[in-house]
Write a structure and sequence with these properties.
The structure is a homodimer of 234-residue chains.
Chain A: E1 3-8, E2 22-27, H1 32-41, E3 46-49, H2 53-58, E4 65-70, E5 73-74, E6 96-100, H3 104-110, E7 116-120, H4 125-134, E8 138-143, H5 152-164, E9 169-171, H6 174-186, H7 190-193, H8 198-205, H9 209-215, E10 226-228, E11 231-233
Parallel strand pairs in A: 1-8, 1-9, 2-7, 2-8, 3-6, 4-6
Antiparallel strand pairs in A: 4-5, 10-11
Helix pairs in contact in A: 5-6
Chain lengths: 234, 234
Amino acid sequence: MMKSIDVCLSPDLMHLYDVRESTVVVVDVLRATSCMVTAFAHGTQSITPYSDLEECKAARSKGFITSGERDGKKADGFDKGNSPFEYMGEDIRDKKIAFTTTNGTEAIHRARAAKKLVVGSFLNLSAVVSELLSGESGVLVVCAGWKGRFNLEDTLFAGAVVERLKDHFEPECDAPLAAQRLYNLARHDMLQFLSNSAHVRRLARLNIHKDIAFCLTEDRYSVVPSLASGVLTA
Amino acid sequence: MMKSIDVCLSPDLMHLYDVRESTVVVVDVLRATSCMVTAFAHGTQSITPYSDLEECKAARSKGFITSGERDGKKADGFDKGNSPFEYMGEDIRDKKIAFTTTNGTEAIHRARAAKKLVVGSFLNLSAVVSELLSGESGVLVVCAGWKGRFNLEDTLFAGAVVERLKDHFEPECDAPLAAQRLYNLARHDMLQFLSNSAHVRRLARLNIHKDIAFCLTEDRYSVVPSLASGVLTA
């Protein structure tokens, strides 16, 4: 029997899915999971996702580098924000990071009951796909969205996973089919396809075109961060 | 300033939207809102949507025709089920119908705080679009989905509305953009596009191909049912 693949288009729909027997891929393309993958590719030891801003900030006293983003901007009092270019230097090598973002860390929190939880982004797409192919479980891709709402970029990532796995995994309902259709429509120029999307326009106002282009690059890294006891490691 | 248009992809995301100043279009293409539109086009006086099956059934004692569907099938003890072909005869003319379905009537219930609530389907697409164009309010299309999940056919209808209104309404976030893209991909052969969708496969097992083809027909009727005090009239 073929394994199944499903897509949860918003963390606010997580109550519809029983993930205890599934491998969950959490994705927040712009930019939380892209940052996390970049950090691990540059030698970060661990990332602990926090839902609460203050709790995350307080982790500094326990030796963590603190990363905080709210509404697309670096949050006050944090060491780092939510740009992947902040996670490429020697300063994060072998360090522990405490991470909180508007959508991505909350999505990880809601999916934490998964049999296995991995972090996906276009940057490590092929590595994630290989991991899913080698596993025994069904797959649920959880899109972080924007404050509970559907977003295009995370859906495109979900569609890319469905497309790459189509000979081995069967779509569970309509969400994976829609994601796959959208990805196949967008894949040859995702930046153009996303140019009128809400979050891309939001980020463009913050002058981070470079981040967006970077986050849409497929297969730059081969790490697959996964969660155990509330902590991500590569 | 352009009016805004948004799409709620599942009734389980209704908490994200404040509809008190909006015109809401509730759609359940397969088949609740297609049945309702068909019934009004054939002279039904009113339709009262019920969330609760037993409450709906009990309305018979107050002179209602009762219509009940659960999981795609006619529910026990009801006069009618959820096929549009049941709502074309003289037996429903000038009658009041009490209606409950798995998804459609629940979506109406959750959107009932709207400034104005109308019922849409491909069957009355142009009539709905004209109504929205003539109104002053922003628009939210609420897709009934399947038990809280995203479905393709309701999303295609939402996309059709966005496409038809694109010169007059601005998309509020990514959901209307995705719906519009999918509709433009599907519009020339919706039946084919939907052939591997979950609900179409579910209904195909119930042998209602004729219903599906009918429900995907654009502009057969010109009625626009709307809700006032919990009751739909044309």
